[in-house]
Amino acid sequence: MKKYIPAISTGAIFLIVWEVVAILIDAMYILPSPSSIVKKIWELRDILFTVHLPATFSVIMIGMAISIALGVALAMLMSMHPVIERAFYPLLVASQTIPITALAPLFVLWFGYTIWSKVLVTVLITFFPIAVNVYDGFRSTKRETEELFVTFGASKKDIFLKLRLPSALPYFFSALKIAMPLSVIGAAIGEWLGAQSGLGYFSKRMMTQLDGAGVFAPIVLLSVIAIIFVLIVSLIEKKTTRWRKEV
């Protein structure tokens, strides 16, 4: 618990300063205070937690599931076959040069206001860090160690399952820690540009009403979701990679 004290203290100071500045400015539609945002979340709890939060959560979960499946599969193929690596790795890098906000309206035209237009935005944002990090994880095994496994009669399957896969696990969890917050951002962007429900959509709707606290309320929920996801991934990582402490 002691290790979290600096972060908690810094966060508390930041919120206090924010509260004071918001009171001094006295323009809630521009800079609402933290207390007014919390109050707004409580006032809108029914529609936020029963309508918009589940919609955003569904986009995040589906998008992350697709990104993990495709990203890990492509990383495995690239690590096993240099030809695939040369063919797809440059495309992965090139995909990150495309502004997602420019593509999102096209996704709405293709898929309408269905969940898939938002899922596709989420996948495009999260697929790259997962594929690249896991690929680096598979490549992190030392050639000398692989040769030692071969000397002891290990098959390619044994080398993959007992050497390369464990070596890639830390990279996989690092990728998830990056991708999870990005998935929240991707879902919010997709909802902001074209949706009928979701926290991003609700924030945009509150902006048209010049409701500063209403704009920040779903943003705060999105931040909390991202933090919870990262904490869950960190917990799973500690449980599944205990061997790293012994190395």
From TrEMBL:
<keyword id="KW-0813">Transport</keyword>
<feature type="domain" description="ABC transmembrane type-1">
    <location>
        <begin position="53"/>
        <end position="237"/>
    </location>
</feature>
<dbReference type="GO" id="GO:0005886">
    <property type="term" value="C:plasma membrane"/>
</dbReference>
<feature type="transmembrane region" description="Helical">
    <location>
        <begin position="171"/>
        <end position="195"/>
    </location>
</feature>
<feature type="transmembrane region" description="Helical">
    <location>
        <begin position="51"/>
        <end position="75"/>
    </location>
</feature>
<feature type="transmembrane region" description="Helical">
    <location>
        <begin position="215"/>
        <end position="236"/>
    </location>
</feature>
<keyword id="KW-0472">Membrane</keyword>
<keyword id="KW-1003">Cell membrane</keyword>
<feature type="transmembrane region" description="Helical">
    <location>
        <begin position="115"/>
        <end position="135"/>
    </location>
</feature>
<protein>
    <submittedName>
        <fullName>ABC transporter permease</fullName>
    </submittedName>
</protein>
<dbReference type="GO" id="GO:0055085">
    <property type="term" value="P:transmembrane transport"/>
</dbReference>
<dbReference type="Pfam" id="PF00528">
    <property type="entry name" value="BPD_transp_1"/>
</dbReference>
<feature type="transmembrane region" description="Helical">
    <location>
        <begin position="87"/>
        <end position="109"/>
    </location>
</feature>
<comment type="similarity">
    <text>Belongs to the binding-protein-dependent transport system permease family.</text>
</comment>
<dbReference type="InterPro" id="IPR000515">
    <property type="entry name" value="MetI-like"/>
</dbReference>
<dbReference type="InterPro" id="IPR035906">
    <property type="entry name" value="MetI-like_sf"/>
</dbReference>
<keyword id="KW-1133">Transmembrane helix</keyword>
<keyword id="KW-0812">Transmembrane</keyword>
<feature type="transmembrane region" description="Helical">
    <location>
        <begin position="12"/>
        <end position="31"/>
    </location>
</feature>
